[in-house]
Amino acid sequence: MKALILVGGFGTRLRPLTLSIPKPLVEFANKPMILHQIEALKAVGVTEVVLAINYQPEVMLNFLKEFEAKLGITISCSQETELLGQLYPFKEMIEFHKAHGGEASIVVTKVDEPSKCGVVVMEETTGKVDKFVEKPKLFVGNKINAGIYLLNPSVLDRIELRPTSIEKAIFPKIAAEKKLYAIVLPGFWMDIGQPKDYIAGLRLYLDSPRKKSSTKLASGHHIVGNVLVHESAKIGEGCLIGPDVVVGPGCVVEAGVRLSRCTVMRGVRIKKHACISSSIIGWHSTVGQWARVENMTVLGEDVHVWDEIYSSGGVILPHKEIKSSILKPEIVM
Q1: Kind and range of the H or E run holding 175
Q2: For residue range 268-295, what is the model confidence (pLDDT) as tens digits?
């Protein structure tokens, strides 16, 4: 069984992090986003993964070759010359696809405001897709395409050798032939392509191992709620960490630091008594003593915030020094 993952986007909404590496390699809960997907595919018997790449293909190729042997799965890349556009209940989806006997299966998810999306109209009992309605003015359903597909090889024969949207050009035809089925995604689904959604998604993700009584989450008198700390990170005395915090490998969190609803990526140093909330701290950055970083501040790679600096919503590009406070959301170039 083969899988195709479309990773051709430029990740502009997640800048400045994606100025350093492609978005699929940005860590989410201390693991590159793309590895979450590849490991899940491997677990259900996928033997080959093809990645459709556009942005920084050489970086993606070098990284994935390292993990190909570790995961025991063949990973190949198809470099997109044009941007083509846009993975987890794989086991359930495979069983569903085999049972209904159609040509293609898609995963859908429920949303609160379907009028803002393209809605999938389907039979509730069988999952057979009737049609797609783009941003309906009248209520026709509350399920939208979640971007996960299981296709028979025959679907590939339907695709012409030119830039094609499978969602707009192919799926409606298969639905008209009564050969397209949809399965509702269990659990949660959301886009984590911009900082505020990344932080919100992290909260949902960290809540999952808590419900499963996982030992992966940190514990102790200094931990509040769901916290993930890499084994190589060092946490000082008198810190208060959590809720919804991830601390990456090689990080140093000095004494008296307060962290909440944030991600601290690989190699970061947080100096004494700093306070960080609702923010993302990029690789190898430093936050000075008594500094306060909040309100969806994002530090790119190798950013150094001086002592006693305040940042409210600053978006700081890589390799910068912040010597004066940022009192309102702005981009520091």
Answers
A1: helix 171-176
A2: 999 999 999 999 999 999 999 999 999 9
Backbone angles phi, psi at 77, to 5 degrees: -125, 140
Rounded (10°) angle between helices 33-43 and 90-100: 50
Give the C-alpha separation, 182 to 198, whole Å. 27
The sheet with strand 104-110 has its strands ordered as 129-134, 118-122, 143-151, 104-110, 180-184
As a whole number of angstroms, the distance between CA 55 and CA 64 comes to 14
Is the whole model's pTM more than 0.85, yes or no?
Answer: no
Which CATH architecture does the domain made up of 210-332 adopt? 3 Solenoid (2.160)
Give the contacts of 217 (CB within 8 A, at least 6 positions apart): 206, 209, 210, 226, 227, 228
Q: Sheet containing 74-79: which strands, arranged edge to edge? A: 2-7, 48-53, 74-79
CB atoms inside a 10 Å sphere around CB 69? 9
| CATH fold match for the domains 2-79 and 90-184 | yes
Q: CA-to-CA distance for 48 and 1, rounded, in angstroms?
A: 7
Q: What CATH number does the domain located at 90-184 have?
A: 3.90.550.10
Burial (0-12, 13-18, 19+ Cβ within 10 Å), 293: buried
Q: What tens digit of pLDDT does each residue of 76-86 get?
A: 666 544 333 33
